[in-house]
Amino acid sequence: MENPNIKTVESYLYALRDKDLSKARLAPDVVFEEPLTPTLTGAEAVLAYLPNVLPLINDVRIKRHIADGEYVAVMWEADTPVGIIPVCECFRVVDGQIKEVSAYFDPRPLTNPTP
Q1: Looking at the 3D structure of the chain, how many domains does it have?
Q2: Residue 51: CB atoms within 10 Å
Q3: SS (H, E, C) 69-108
Q4: Is residue 92 part of a domain?
Q5: Is residue 111 part of a domain?
Q6: Spatial distance between the Cα atoms of 99 and 115, rounded to a whole number of angstroms
Q7: pLDDT tens figures, 9-60
Q8: Which domain holds residue 37?
Q9: Would you say 93 and 99 are in contact if contact means Cβ atoms under 8 Å apart?
């Protein structure tokens, strides 16, 4: 049996890959954290920020899910114009919507790309 919280998280990651944020099931009060921006609160703020990220993602390669109740951790690779960036992202999913997103990755390839 497939875990519905994993499916919700995959929909978010594939929304990034497909550049179609309508597929991202974000709760209205979602909290979003990642190395390149201050913490964002609310779907409106997150959806205003994510279009800045979309040009950086050519593909999403999911490596592993770890699920425990409302929480899903995903190890994935972002195929970007500056190379592959490993990402570990932790999500909290409630009633089919993402309530929390915490992304962990090394931002240096994006902030200091080598010529």
Answers
A1: 1
A2: 10
A3: CCEEEEEEEEEECCEEEEEEEEEEEECCEEEEEEEECCCH
A4: yes
A5: no
A6: 38
A7: 999 999 999 999 999 999 999 999 999 899 999 999 999 999 999 999 999 9
A8: 4-106
A9: yes
